[in-house]
Model the fold of this input.
Amino acid sequence: MTDGLDREERDAALRRARSIRALRELAGRCRACDLWARATQTVFGDGPPRARLLIVGEQPGNSEDLEGVPFVGPAGRLLDRALVGAGIDREDVYVTNVVKHFKWRRSPSGKRRIHEKPDRAEVDACFPWLEAEVSRIRPTLIVCLGATAAQAVLGRGFRVTREHGQVMASELGPALGTIHPSAVLRAPDDARDAMLDQLTADLRVAADRLRAPNSPSA
Ligand code: SF4
Done:
């Protein structure tokens, strides 16, 4: 690999990079695990570099892999709806994923690329990118979408069903876990509205937290 960064090189580069833009450029060369090889490109975080709210999901999906931007596919559109319902302007939010490359397998027909959940080693390998994003942005609150992101930030014992919508302490700062919009999309028809309501309600908790008088400003 001519221009790639193995884990050691990546970690050294991370310590030197000061801005989100510098991190984004470096992430395009990351080879710290094998996921880069089958993905189209690195999908780094996107949003204001001083955002007070950082939302982190699991990994890019098919659309995000092709466009190189997080949360632009169907799950992203659903997230936009929930953010509107919670009174949060997406333009004010930094969105990212705990794993920056798309992990997928071919559908039986060979026509589609199907999401595969990243394993623990892949999440651990990619986590320094999220740590670096948080340390440069210094958000007031982190919202974790789905179990993979929530367990990476809030610990492996975190259960979305039991602990969603609660602001908790984490090594990265105050964080709240909730449902991933992809889970809402995959839910049976009769459960989908209730799940979207739950996601929106949890985001409203985040919005309230940002509005609280003692909440740090950007
Ligand atoms: S998934 Fe993360 S750690 Fe693995 S190659 Fe991509 S950016 Fe690097």
